[in-house]
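ARCHIVE CARD
SHELF: 3
SLOT: left
DATA:
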Amino acid sequence: MLIDAHSHLESYGDLLDSALEEIEKNRILTISNSIDVPSYNRNLELAERSKLVVPTFGVHPWTAPQHADRLEELKPFLASTPMIGEVGLDFRYVTEPSKQRSQREVLEFFLDAAARESKVVSLHTLGAEREVLGLLDGYGIERAIVHWYSGDLDTLREMIDRGFYFTVGYEVRSSKHIRKIASTVPKNRILTETDNPGGPQWLIGEVRMPLLVKEVIAELAHVKGVAPGEIEAAVADNLADLIRGDAHTARLSAVLEE
């Protein structure tokens, strides 16, 4: 089984049916992160169409300012999600202090829920890696997926020491820094992602389909000096280890065990 631990399937538009067909044909277990309530509702619909789609609820840092003053409205969606994501901070592309404050407020709301409900949280940390680590420590978060980490290696190593997991995506094929990160993260903490469809469109100027994850696996195998099949197996084992014993993710565990 292939693992795409960070995607946004609801954004595929006219290509959605083709994407779902490719997921089914190639058995790509896909965690489809949400950025707000409407995207979560669409992801819930996609999960009805395929058991390989895992919908998760979050508020992306770019949309956080629209939610900071109505956090109570998000509680029903938080209660229903098996994992929390995508949430976090983005201080690289969002520099206005008031918007950064809103990001922190929203992230802390989600981290408080993650701690109380013992849910895995998937994190956006761009340009705010040290700040996110401090908040994770403050809320006692022990199970986290750090999405597309691109920060400094010292903070990375501290996150590794905390036991967090890290998704590596298509940029590993083109960035020396991302390859260094991939080589630093232990094989038992790596997950594969595509960030489809928006991530590849931003990175290389074109929308890619779910099998993009195979190219990520091939490059990770090269970086780690192992066979692609070894990466595939390790990633599946890592995801299983992350959610082992978690009642919220029973459906996901069942699919992994098939």
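SLOT: right
DATA:
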Amino acid sequence: MYIGSYQLSNNLIVAPMAGVTDRPFRTLCKYFGAGHAVSEMMTADKTLRMSKKSLYRANFDGELAPISAQIAGSDPEQLAEAARYQVANGAQIVDINMGCPAKKVCNKLAGSALLQDENLVARILDAVVAAVDVPVTLKTRLGFLNGHENILRVAKRAEESGIAALALHGRTREDMYLNTARYELIKQVKELIDIPLIANGDIDSPEKAKYVLDYTGADAIMIGRAAQGQPWIFREIAHYLKTGEHLAAPDIAEVKAVLLGHLAELYEFYGEYSGCRIARKHIAWYTKGLRSSNEFRQNMYKVENTADQTKVVESYFDQLLDQGQRMSDVQAEQVNLLDIK
């Protein structure tokens, strides 16, 4: 798959997630086989550009190409300026956010709230594409409200404006992350446009990845929440798409090594105070479903420094190894819980 002149190594893409897809996480997902990753959402408001959070989000040092920076806002000129700024900062692709459903974003008429005003959508697309000489992509949803899905018009207008690829989450803003992703409309969009289409929403297994690709005809898939705490999902999906066979789940020793490596990168990237606190959610995701994990997490949340945090993680995984815990046991338990529901 190509985005502009950039050929991706495969068609598996890491979805942009605020507070999650920082440089350490993007790098880790690419290591496990993701062909592309999009940065966290960065505001187009230049008065906030030099905030500590914005500087972290715009840090692409040493990242594997192509580097994609996502921008968010509602003013066409501000977004055009933000695009130029991110290109000067090292971005090789600029992604426009018209998909975020968060209240604090939509209240500023940004993210998926933009889908209420198709004229403004068109002005933003035209302004950003004209502002930079790199490919511009769009991440969006089916529409703002259920029953008022306007993605077919938005997608066609995006193609006409020069958008290089469209990533489409199969829900409306009203859905937030509830209900199930609707792939029928994604399929209709693929039949309508000629630019690459990336399907997003509820892709959480190799089988689901293949189904979505086959059903929608999408050129690629984008994975978000399913990669939290299991970045190796890209390795598993890539293997399944190529061979039709499943890879064995990572063993506890590998999970331990991956998590400790991830923590080290977070500590180096964010520093002592923020690194320790940002790492907590990642540790919780990695340990979900493991033996006595709830008790472990409650104790882990109380740790206030990186050295002790590393020690409690090492100790917990060493106990699991001594007890013979396997990741396949965790997956079986999760399947059983789904059956019960």
